[in-house]
Amino acid sequence: MTQTYSLSLTGLTLRVQHIERQLAFYRDLLGLEVVDQQGPRTDLAPAGRAFTLTLLHDPSAPLRPQPTLGLYHFALLLPRRATLAAVFRRLVEARYPHFQGASDHGVSEALYLADPEGNGLELYRDRPRLEWPFRGGRLAMVSERLDLQALLSEARSSGPLDPQTTLGHLHLHVRDLDEAQAFYEGLGLALMQGDYPGARFLAADGYHHHIGINLWARGRTAPKEATGLLAYQIALRGRSPQTLTDPNGAEVRVLAL
Predict the structure, then answer these.
(1) Quick one: average pLDDT of 117-132?
(2) What is the spatial distance between Cα 256 and Cα 239, in angstroms, rounded to a whole number?
(3) Burial class of residue 179, CB neighbours in 10 A (0-12, 13-18, 19+)
């Protein structure tokens, strides 16, 4: 029987300073396809069209300082370990300079990098839910060393993002954890883990997290006109379309699922 879900992350919009540099990364290296281009707006998506990444070109925008309130990273979920390994091998072969690390979170295996303008990006694959770690009946994600050589051995050749890649989660720097948690609970998400230092993780459908929130930017703010996250889209079952503003000021487009 096919599993049905009540939430899907379907897109995000980044303001970018240098469109060709960003396209060289997202299109040419990672393999997203340009599906629409009008004026300063370029829409990209994987072949399966599970989400849209919109790049809004503004050459006068200053680069967002890191870390500041807003995007910590957005996370692209690969369907299998071998497909994560293939895109990792592609990054290694290209000697991509903005690789930041890797972790085994118990629920997932994750690679961390930044795009050429410093926007955080996670590439990951999930472990089967029956393998997720729990402590006292609650989810207990961890951050342990990921064996990168073992991961690379899963792919004999490199490749772009799998066509079925989805937007798995967003992780945000916020000013106040309680305020942010209340906002996402208002969208139907539930707290999945709240004991990670300075961070909380919320999700629908029993997932490990669709939204992560943390205090690691210590309240520092970026100029309003800076590059970075402007908006994101969440499709929710049983909700009417509406547009909200999250605690950081980003536009949240709620769509009917």
Answers:
(1) 98
(2) 6
(3) exposed
